[in-house]
Amino acid sequence: MADVIVADGLTKSYGKRRGVIDLSFSVQPGEVFGYLGPNGAGKTTTIRTMLDFIRPTNGRVSVFGLDSRADSIEIHRRSGYLPGERALYERLTGVEFLAHFAALRGDVDWRFVLGLGERFDCDLNARIRSLSHGNKQKIGLIQAFMHRPELLILDEPTQGLDPLVQQEFHQLVEEVRAEGRTIFLSSHVMPEVERLCDRVGIIREGRLIAVEDIGDLKARALRTLEIHFAQPVPPSAFSRLPGVRDVEQHGDTLRLTVAGRLDPIVKAAGQFEVVDLASHEPSLEDVFLAFYGKGEKGAG
Amino acid sequence: MVRTVWTKTLRDQRRALGWWSLGFVLTVFMYAAFWPNVHANAAQFNQYIERMPAAIKNMMGGANFGTPEGYLQTELFSFLGPVLLLVYAIGAGARSIAGEEEAGTLDLLLSTPLARLRVLLNKFGAMLSATLYLAMLTWLALMVLGPLYELHLPLGGPVAATLNLFLLALAFGAVALLVGTATGSKGAAVGVSSGLAVVTFVLNTLAPSVDALKPFRFLTPFHYYSAHQPITNGFNGIDILVLFGISLIALLLALATFERRDLAT
Q1: Tell me, what's the pLDDT at A1?
Q2: Does A125 lie in the same domain as A33?
Q3: Does B263 contact A76 at a Cβ distance shorter than 8 Å?
């Protein structure tokens, strides 16, 4: 099957402000593609170009093989969109809001919409203005999923979602994946992308620096390992082990920066008396560090 | 009720429109209630106005307090009527696109399979219908409340005057919609269009009596609104065409700029 999204040399400049520069990537049908980068890296700019809210300075992006500029209406018809800036019509109730968008789209199964409302445990009869942040998020999500689109374009979908709703959202993503539909999801949180996505594109300062399989990415990511020993242990016992990039000593504790498998370190630590051991999820910064090598400034 | 962008936009305004309706009806009521008194002292009023500077006389629309038409032309249709309806239409025009853009809801609205053209036409339609409603309500109030105070009017004149009032407000509303759509800024839209309204209003007031400005009197929409005295003389095709033409051109320019530009987040 043909790729769902193809960006080809996509560039958007905003005068002095950074946009995105020469992006090329493709998203395959049925995959959950994570678009990872720090805030301000150009994630929203990329998404808004796909949906023709802004126009490329150079290059092009196509969705379903259709040109983002010439065929935007057809692209909109077949996609669901969750904006990064969650502004809804505050004066309407949830039902009115969803009914409005269902009417604008046509072809929406209202029972499915109400079903989503129940799943998210969302009070659809309250005025949106009176809802909590999390409840507004739910309504935004229902709006994106309600017409069962072939492609979902979600800008930071779980930002501000409470854990229960997050779980429901993850389940929804799994269902969409199982039905062979496609999701393009932006995020600045590595663990979330790791959990949901098949592949990830990493964007930094407007440039796509890598498109990787999640598994490969994790293997390359740096993680921090903190080992608290009973007595001070010399850093030299660890600094030459494979994958160790950096060792810092703080009293009885060693803080190691490690790429790849932890096995050699754990075995080496076994020679000493270990009081506590903590491994931290690789943060986005750590992922970038893995790509840029240790010591580069301004990562993340 | 909220099946289209048009009806949804009107629904958003239903409460505000309720207050506007009250305002227009009360304004008409006030002028109607003053009529018996004005009529009784028409001669003095007319003398008083005769002594005023020419520009003020122009502003008051030629003023003849002896007839209901002259009285309404001077009072309702020369100042308060246009001011109120322009304020409404300019606000509605400015909010059309720029309001959604500033509120951050425009992305979501345009992520539906609606072309920008269609969204803009819906917004224009909402502004047009609400402005038309307020104009018609004013006319209706005049015809219903007037006779209670001996303010008897023929059918044609007030309809022609109200139509011109509607078209004048629509023109400035369309300019506000154009500026708002082109810039994405409600403030710019209200500022530019109300600034234009003041300048062209003053030009219309001064032009007939200031020789240097006389040739420019055709440049102001207010000339087409009132020079012909529609409440007395009825419909004038050219006035209607020019006023509606302004709206149409502004709408077409708005469509052209909207299609071309990037939307703000």
Answers
A1: 67
A2: yes
A3: no
If asked whether residues A268 and A157 sit together in one domain, one would say no
* Token duo for residue A110: 């209202």
Cβ neighbours of residue A224 closer than 8 Å, sequence gap 6 or more: A255, A256, A257, A258, A279, A280, A286
**A29-78, pLDDT tens digit by residue?**
999 999 998 888 999 999 999 999 999 999 999 999 999 999 999 999 99
- Note whether residue A83 is domain-resident: yes
Percent of chain A with pLDDT over 90: 63
Say whether B265 and A85 touch across the interface (CB within 8 A). yes
Q: Does A66 touch chain B (CB under 8 A)?
A: no
Report if residue A275 sits inside a domain. Answer: yes
Separation in Å, CA of B9 to nearest CA in chain A:
11
Residue A292 lies in a domain: no
The yes-or-no verdict on residue A300 having pLDDT over 50 is no
Picking from A167, A185, A214, the residue at the C-terminal end of a domain is A214
Q: pLDDT (tens digit, 9 = 90+) per residue, B237-263?
A: 999 999 999 999 999 999 999 999 999
pLDDT at A293 over 60: no
Q: Which of B1, B112, B262 sits opposite A76 (nearest CB)?
A: B112
Instruction: Please report the ipTM that was assigned to this predicted complex.
Output: 0.89
Which residue range is the domain that position A259 belongs to? 222-281
B263 → closest Cβ in A54, A81, A91: A54
Task: Among A81, A87, A106, select the one facing B111 at the smallest CB separation.
Answer: A81
State both tokens at B110.
Answer: 């345009």
Same domain, A264 and A157: no
Return the axis-axis angle of helices B14-40 and B42-50, rounded to nearest 10°.
Answer: 100
Residues from B contacting A (CB-CB < 8 Å) are 1-5, 8, 12, 103-105, 107-115, 262-263, 265
pLDDT (tens digit, 9 = 90+) per residue, A165-217? 888 899 999 999 999 999 999 998 877 888 899 999 999 889 998 898 887 77
Task: Give A-chain residues touching B17 at CB under 8 angstroms.
Answer: none
What is d(CA A116, CA B215) in angstroms, rounded to the nearest whole number?
Answer: 66
Count of domains in chain A? Answer: 2
Residues in chain A: 300
Per-residue pLDDT for A95 more than 90? yes
Look up the pTM and report it: 0.87
Q: What's residue B139's pLDDT? A: 96
10 Å CB burial of residue B170 (0-12, 13-18, 19+) is buried
Sequence spans of domains, chain B: 5-27+79-260
Question: Does any CB of chain B come closer than 8 Å to the CB of residue A91?
Answer: yes
Whether residues A83 and A10 fall in one domain:
yes
Q: CA-to-CA distance for A149 and A80, rounded, in angstroms?
A: 6
Cβ atoms of residues B96 and B190 within 8 Å: no
One-letter amino acid for residue A293 of the chain: G
CB contact under 8 A, A85 and B111: no
- Residue of chain A whose Cα is closest to the Cα of B104: A87
Both A166 and A272 in a single domain? Answer: no
